[in-house]
Amino acid sequence: MLNLQESFSKVAEAVKPAVVNIATTHLEQYQANPYEFFFMNPEDLFDQFFDFQGAPRQRQQQPRQNPKKYYERKVPGTGSGVIIDPDGFILTNEHVVRGADEIKVAIPGFEKKFDGKVIGRDERTDLAVVKVQSASKLPYAELGDSDIVRVGDWAIAIGSPFGLEQTVTVGVISASRQNLNIEDKVYKDLIQTDAAINPGNSGGPLVNIRGEVIGINTAIYTPSGGFAGIGFAIPISRAKEIIPQLREKGKVVRGWIGVILEEKIDEATAAVFGITNGEGAMVREALPDYPAAKSGLQRGDVIREFNGKKVKNNFDLQALVQSAAPGSTVPVKIIRNKSELTLKLAIEEAPASLKPDGQKDAQDEPGKPFAGPRVNWLGASLTDMTGSLREKFAVPASETGVVVVEIVQGSKAEEMGLAEGDLIRSVNQAKVADLAAFKSVSAKISTKNGVVLDILRQGSPRYISYMGPEK
After folding, report:
1. Fold equal for 146-248 and 255-349
2. Displacement of CA 310 from its chain's centroid (Å)
3. Rounded to an integer, what distance in angstroms lies between the CA atom of residue 380 and that of residue 56?
4. Cα Rg of the chain (Å, integer)
5. Which of 41, 215, 235, 253 is the most buried (most CB within 10 A)?
């Protein structure tokens, strides 16, 4: 135990000099209506309502000029960072320095705080590099290899929780390769630890028992607002991949092909589309005028290989595309209509925003009960598209299919995820332009063997799949 204690102390002594506190200030403008006080001569007040002869005067409403005033206030923030180069390069979280108008860096052993400048940032990985100018070489931490981290290894977090600088906490690696959704962004391969991480620790290092940085502390799971034994760090191996670009270019250049993917390929989808072992990335939509659409990639295609490397899931494809050089052309193997094809795909640089345009939300409006013929299928009431339904559910004029107008509670249709307003465009890859076509196609299928519906919901295409008994 004494040897272990000595190890922790040595790690703290070696790494703490390289761990900094980052204090930020953001100047925020806001508007306010100032209170107005009026002091008037009684005669002036009298003259507002009567003319000089004492006759009542018609009051004229004058528009009051009450311009809003702009004020500035300083919004402080705090976080941590770790020096990774003796010339003053500091690695931290992007969210720590986001929007900062002023950055002050406190380095152990220096009385005066340093002015920090962001030289590179990447929102997608939540990493940034800050530079400080120093007349002398600065202490720095060694970067380790997070790919060899094992569950159960010691983990030591160092930072400034709640502004308390140079705080050291100890735990273990609880899990690795965790994918976490934070503020609508997916962070991949995060390291989970029970070493105490609190607000202010963000950007500080997570180190191993040898004093090597294995992660950058970035988030916690906290139902109560305090530490709950679950913290997350960005693997240092992922950071090392992009640090050179952050230092040299100020950003990370990634490849992009312009597709929206289905979340997963389930058993029913694999059976209907002829996908052996269920591996691959399924295209929900190829965005118009972008590389995927230009190359001929279509909705429903399953990407199985990208530039000679296997694609098992969406994460594999995203990693391969992002690492591809913009301007290059790569071969892509796909499954379409149960046949394998190879396409040539040109890579472009990923834009700042990947949100697709043209998606319109349907606005529910009160209306008359749906009239006309219907088909009841697995608890879903379907009808032909009409002008009023097209308007109600915001279906583009170019789209054809049958519309879901009612779902029986507890039915198979509800279980598989159908909803009122869904436009069913195809069943098991067979187009259904109207009720007649739907009746013909649905009569030939069995949910026991799997059914995949191609639908349009609120302007967005998606697949719904189901495999199981019909009753």
Report:
1. no
2. 25
3. 73
4. 31
5. 215
Quote the percentage of the chain above a pLDDT of 90.
50
CB atoms inside a 10 Å sphere around CB 3: 6
Token pair in block for residue 267: 């058993």
Residue 54, pLDDT score: 52
Annotated domain spans of the chain: 146-248, 255-349, 374-466
The pTM of this model reads 0.65
CATH 3.30.1360.120 fits 146-248, yes or no: no
CB neighbour burial string for 56-67, b if at least 16 within 10 angstroms, e if fewer: eeeeeeeeeeee
Closest CA relative to residue 206, chosen from 244, 236, 238, 239: 236
- Cross-strand partners of 343: 332
Q: For residue 195, give the 3-state DSSP assignment.
A: coil
Selecting from 3.10.180.10, 2.40.240.20, 2.40.110.10, 2.30.42.10, what CATH number does the domain 255-349 have? 2.30.42.10
Instruction: Report angle CA 186, 190, 194 to the nearest 5 degrees.
Output: 130
Per CATH, the number for 374-466 is 2.30.42.10
CA distance 326 to 344: 14
| Averaged pLDDT score across all residues of the chain | 84
pLDDT digit string, tens, across residues 381-413: 999 888 778 888 888 888 999 999 989 888 888
Whole-angstrom distance, CA of residue 73 vs CA of residue 134: 30
126 is catalytic: yes
Catalytic residue among 95, 295, 426, 465: 95
pLDDT of residue 393: 87
Catalytic residue among 126, 384, 422, 454: 126
pLDDT at 176 over 90: no
pLDDT over threshold 50, residue 356: no
- Asked if 122 is an active-site residue, the reply is no
Kindly tell me if the per-residue pLDDT of 363 is higher than 70.
Answer: no
Active site residue 115: no
Q: Which of 202, 295, 426, 465 is catalytic?
A: 202
Q: Which residue has the higher pLDDT, 45 or 144?
A: 144
| Residues whose CB is less than 8 angstroms from the CB of residue 429 and which lie 6 or more positions away in sequence, other chains included | 272, 273, 300, 337, 452, 454
Summarize the confidence of residues 452-461 as an average pLDDT.
91
Distance of CA 371 to the CA centre of its chain: 42
3-state secondary structure 405-419: EEECCCCHHHHHCCC
